[in-house]
Amino acid sequence: MIYELFYPLKSHYSWLSWLNVLRYIPFRTIMATITAMVLSFVLAPWFIRELKRKQIGQVVRSEGPATHHVKAGTPTMGGALILLSLLLPTALWADLRNPFVLSTTAVTAGYGVIGYLDDYLKIKRKNTGGLPGRYKLIGQTLIGGAAVAYTFLSKEGMPADWIQIRTRLAIPFVAFSKFSPDLPLWFYFPFAIFVVVATSNAVNLTDGLDGLAIGPVMINAGTYLILAYVAGATIANFSLAAYLDIPKIASAGELAVYCGAVIGAGIGFLWYNTYPAQVFMGDLGALALGGGLGMLAIFTKNELLSVLLGGIFFVETASVITQVVSFKLTGKRVFLMAPIHHHYEKKGWAEPKIIVRFWIISILLALVSLVSMKLR
Predict the structure, then answer these.
(1) 368 falls in which pLDDT band (50, 70, 90)?
(2) 285 to each of 37, 134, 244, 261, 280, how far by Cα in Å?
(3) Listed residue (343, 353, 300) closest to 323, CA to CA
(4) Per-residue pLDDT at 65
(5) Residue 192: which of 48, 291, 94, 272 has the closest Cα?
(6) Is residue 14 part of a domain?
């Protein structure tokens, strides 16, 4: 919004030539990050007080770790604050005509609505049931499908470089020009939707300890910020993507602004969500942030790399699937409790130890993911 409103003015008024700085994605990314942080810090105290006043508190699983029972009643739906602090700065500093920004923010907001319904039903019914899983999946698939269809089936307004490669699959640690299979649309389309829905639910499963999910979300967003910028950056007619032999998508660079807003909103939220948490993000935040990360993976052509980058989310999801399958087939549990962070709690690990160690692993995976751009 700021970009679209004020940047054209520099052409009409010479004294506004300094507005040329709005051209540059790094500047707008930094401003989006700062704006999101300020919004979070300013609004959070009031927001938490309102949640307490309306008695919007966390419902805790009865079979969960004993240490979690003290968390019952802690304000939840903090994801609403994250979304406000994320979407508003993105709207202010990003180019909203960019189809990638438009689709990613639409999925983030849409998945936030699904998460809100889930949280609302949990609070209203005083149990952890919430919105039935099948309805959540249907909603996620429809919203994700609409966003993917807009960018994959439409040619109007889509960048030419994107149209040429949108169904090609980048293989981690392999040069894009050497081997990147072009998948048929009938296969790639549902695959892309699966990436978005799976990532959304994986982040939601990870959100079980104070600050556990938001840390890897910010680390992932920071990595996608670099990947998106490199994919679109051309400096003095020098293309970083061509040099590194990764997919060149000029318009993907604008997603760095969205990523910056995620980081800023996450930092502001973490100030109040760190152990012991004053507020939880709830499904409202987890589903929305996960959906946004899934869209980033698709638009930067890092669908397969997202498994490595989001390794924490993948392991959390795999632990749940393993636990369910094992119990149904053999009647035995592989873990003391799933997702796996609860397994370590049951083993006696302190909650902060689990959180920090998962963050460290996430940082390591992010570094390996970035190295993949050069090791090809």
Answers:
(1) very high
(2) 16, 19, 34, 14, 9
(3) 343
(4) 59
(5) 291
(6) no
